[in-house]
Write a structure and sequence with these properties.
single chain; D-Maltodextrin-Binding Protein, domain 2; 7-stranded mixed β-sheet; 40% helix
Length: 304
């Protein structure tokens, strides 16, 4: 095989990738321990070799061109494979370390992932976990997140999506409310009840309730005197204290159902679910801390 790369070229590729990640020749130079001029020369050397511009430069910033972005993604993947190959051969696999920044929905955070974090950190004590509980959409790059969990995640070519579970929905109410208002037996009975609403952060509109009616699936907009936003657990708390009916995920209210502080109603129309998905960026190098956490969660999800 004829040699195609020398040490200078490989070094130039490393500095190019660093500049793309840092968004600045100066920042890349500081990170690599070289001068900004050395980074600039390396990028120019690659542009001459490829016959195309890799960056759009201004006096204050640099931005990858379309060709530059494609080249960066391929180079980053190749460099990552080289590093992993070296570690495999030499046995120098590093322990996962650094800060893992994750975004979780309030419900899934409290009832699924947060209880697992102490075990994860016992396994990987060098990893610090920064958790943000929110139901809003996030920008991975702009906000610096490593991973997120979302319900009904939309397809995105820049993200890897790993299914976690289809979470079953139930309609619940307190015994006190049912004694006062009666137990609904049909879906039409919901019109006569206080149905606690939850507002979707993405649309600002109340979420529809999902049911099976015979062989058909049915979505319903319900009415009531309470509207919750941001945190689904607010609806559960209201239902426990007699405010009305609420549709939520079974895994959130399993303990209350077992104790009897909440009662499931409309069981003949249940069975619908919503999917929760783990998301992380597709195009950037996957840090060891993120790889460890993803593998940890995918193992644990079997119990759900």
């Amino acid at each position: 095989m004829r040699r195609q790369f020398d040490d200078v070229l490989l070094g130039s590729i490393e500095l190019f990738c660093l500049a793309a990640e840092e968004g600045s020749f100066t920042a890349a130079a500081l990170s690599a321990g070289v001068t900004p001029a050395a980074v600039s020369r390396s990028v120019a050397r690659l542009e001459e070799r490829l016959g195309t511009r890799l960056f759009v430069r201004t006096t204050r910033s640099i931005r990858l061109t379309d060709g530059g972005r494609s080249y960066y993604e391929q180079c980053r993947q190749a460099l990552t494979q080289l590093v992993e190959a070296e570690r495999e051969v030499t046995g120098k696999q590093l322990d996962p370390s650094g800060t893992l920044r994750i975004s979780l929905p309030t419900t899934y955070g409290h009832h699924r992932l947060l209880p697992l974090l102490p075990e994860f950190r016992r396994l990987y004590p060098k990893v610090q976990v920064e958790v943000h509980l929110s139901n809003r959409n996030i920008d991975f790059v702009a906000e610096g997140y490593d991973m997120a969990v979302r319900v009904r995640a939309q397809p995105d070519s820049t993200l890897i999506a790993r299914p976690l579970e289809d979470a079953r929905l139930v309609v619940v109410a307190s015994p006190e409310y049912l004694a006062r208002a009666g137990t609904p037996l049909t879906l039409d009975d919901l019109e006569q009840h206080d149905c606690i609403q939850f507002e979707l952060p993405s649309s600002g509109r109340p979420i529809t309730w999902l049911f099976n009616e015979g062989s058909k699936e049915r979505e319903m907009l319900t009415n009531g005197g309470y509207l919750c936003a941001d945190d689904v657990l607010a609806g559960v708390t209201l239902a426990k204290h007699g405010a009305g009916l609420f549709q939520t995920y079974r895994f959130i209210v399993e303990r209350e159902l077992a104790k009897g502080s909440l009662v499931e109603v409309l069981q003949p129309f249940s069975g619908r679910s919503r999917p929760f998905t783990l998301l992380y960026p597709h195009s950037r190098h996957m840090p060891l801390r993120l790889r460890a956490f993803v593998n940890f969660i995918m193992d644990k999800k079997q119990a759900w």
